[in-house]
Amino acid sequence: MVSFIAVVRSLCIFLVILTLVLAVTPPNVIQCPHLCGCPSKTLVICEGKVDKLTYIPRIPATTRKLVFRGNLVPEIYRDTFKNITFQSGNRVEILDLSNNGIVFISTMAFSKLTYLKELDLSKNYLRDPDGLQKALVGLRFIHVHRLMLHHMDLGDDSIPSNLFEPLTYLNSIQTIDMSDNVLNEFDFQTLVNLTSLEELILSSNRISGLTDKSFDGMNLIKTIDLSSSNFQDFVTFSEDIMSTLLPKTLEILSLRNSILGNVPRFNSSNITELDLSENKITKLHLEDIANYPSLRVLNLNSNRLTRISEGTIPPSIQDQLIAVGFADNPLLCSCDIAWLHNWMVKEPLKFLTMGTQIECLSEETGSFILLEDYKPTNCGSISHVTLTITIACCVIVVIIIAVLIFCYRKRIKLFCYVCTRKRGGEQLVLSDNVGI
Ligand SMILES: *[C@@H]1O[C@H](CO)[C@@H](O)[C@H](O)[C@H]1NC(C)=O
Ligand SMILES: *[C@@H]1O[C@H](CO)[C@@H](O)[C@H](O)[C@H]1NC(C)=O
Ligand SMILES: *[C@@H]1O[C@H](CO)[C@@H](O)[C@H](O)[C@H]1NC(C)=O
Ligand SMILES: *[C@@H]1O[C@H](CO)[C@@H](O)[C@H](O)[C@H]1NC(C)=O
C-alpha cells in the first residue's frame, strides 16, 4: 500500500517536472528554412529560382555554409544578417551572396558575421563607384580568407588605392577574385599590403599595365590568373625586368587569351603550371621553355605554331611534364615535328589530358591529319641513308683507282721511266751545246 502511494507520488512529481521543462525551453531547433534546401547538416542552399526570398531566414545552428543566391535583397545593412549572426546562435563561415540584385551595402554590414571566412559578392552591381570600398569596411575585424568579386562591373574608379585597407588589419586574406570586371589600368599597389595573398584572379579584365613593382610585397603568392588580358609581347619590358617581373614564389600562371606573340621569359624557377593557350605565339625559341625548369603542366593550345623543333622542350622537362597541349596549332607535318610525334606515341596520356587532339597539315594531301597518324618515315633516317651511300661511293671509287693502277702498273712504270730519260737527254743536249 505504502509502495503504491510512493509510486503514484513519484509519477506525479515526474509529470510536473516534465511539464515545467517543456514549458520553459522554447523549441529552438530550427528547421531547414522555407524555399531552401539543406543537403547536409552544415549546408543551406537558398537559390531563388522561382520564388525569390527578400530576407535572410533563420537557419539551423549547425550551418557553416549558406548559399543565398539569386534572391532579391537590393540593400544590405547590418540587420539583414540578424538571423545568421553569432548572437542568434550561428557560426556561418562561408556566405555566398551572389546575384541578389544588391546595389548598396552599408559600411558595417558584415561586422557581426564573426566567423566568416569566405564571402562571395559576385554578380551584384553596386550603385556608387565607392560602393565596394564602403562594403569592405565591415570586414576589418573578420578573418576573411577568400573574397569573390567576380562580374560586378568594377571599373578603375571603383578600385581606389586604399580599397583593401580594411583587410590589412588581420591580414588573413589568401584569395581575391576580381575576374570578369572592366578594369584596364588596374593599380596593383592596391594589393601591396596584403602579404598573406596566395591567389590573385584578375582574368577577363583586359588589363594591360604591369610594372616591375606590380607584385611587390606578395611574398606568398602562388597563383596568378591574368587570362584575357592585353599584354601583347610585353614589348615594353627589357629582359632584365622580365626576369624579375613575377614573384619567385609563383607556381601557377595563366596568360591565356592575352594577345601574346612570344613565350614570355619570366625566369620563374618555381612555376609548375603555365597556360599560354589562345595567344598568337608563332615560334618557340630554344630558351623559352628552359626558363621554366619546374614545369609540370604546359598549355600552348590554340596558338600559331607551324614548327616546333626538337630541343625547345628540354628532355628533363619532357620527363617531368604531366600534361602538355599543342592542339589547335597550324603545325606542318614535317621532319621538325617528328620528335613530337614520337613523344606523343610514347606518352599519349600527357597529351590527352589537355583535351583536343593534335593535328598537322600534310603537304602531300593538303589536309590535316592526326599527329599520331603522321608517319615521319624518311626524316631522322634520311641523313643516315645519304651518309651510307656517300661512304659506299667513296669506297668503290678508291677500289676502282687501285685496280686500274694495279693493271697498268707496267705502263705507268714505263711512262715514268721515259719521262725521266727525256729530261736527262734534254739536259745532255743542253750541256753539249754549251760545250760547243
Ligand atoms: C529572420 O527570419 C524570419 C523567418 O525565418 C523572417 O521572418 C525575418 O524577417 C528574418 N529577419 C530578418 C531581419 O531578415
Ligand atoms: C601600406 O602600408 C604602408 C605602411 O603601413 C602605408 O603607408 C601604405 O599607405 C599602405 N598602402 C596601402 C595601399 O594600403
Ligand atoms: C619554390 O617552391 C618550393 C616548394 O614549393 C619552396 O620550398 C621554395 O621556397 C620556393 N622558392 C621560392 C623562391 O619561393
Ligand atoms: C634567373 O634566376 C636565377 C636564380 O633565381 C639566376 O641565377 C639567373 O641569373 C636568372 N636569369 C636571368 C636571365 O635573369
TrEMBL record:
It is a single-pass membrane protein. PANTHER family: PROTEIN TOLL-RELATED (PTHR24365:SF541), TOLL-LIKE RECEPTOR (PTHR24365). Residues 1-23 form the signal peptide. It holds the Pfam family LRR_1. Keywords: Glycoprotein, Leucine-rich repeat, Membrane, Repeat, Signal, Transmembrane, Transmembrane helix. One of its GO terms (cellular component) is plasma membrane. It comes from the Eukaryota. Gene3D superfamilies: Ribonuclease Inhibitor. GO terms for biological process: signal transduction. The keyword Repeat applies. GO terms for molecular function: signaling receptor activity. This is LRRCT domain-containing protein. It comes from Lottia gigantea (Giant owl limpet). It is found in: Membrane. The chain crosses the membrane at residues 385-408. The keyword RNA-binding does not apply. InterPro entries: Leu-rich_rpt, Leu-rich_rpt_typical-subtyp, LRR_dom_sf.
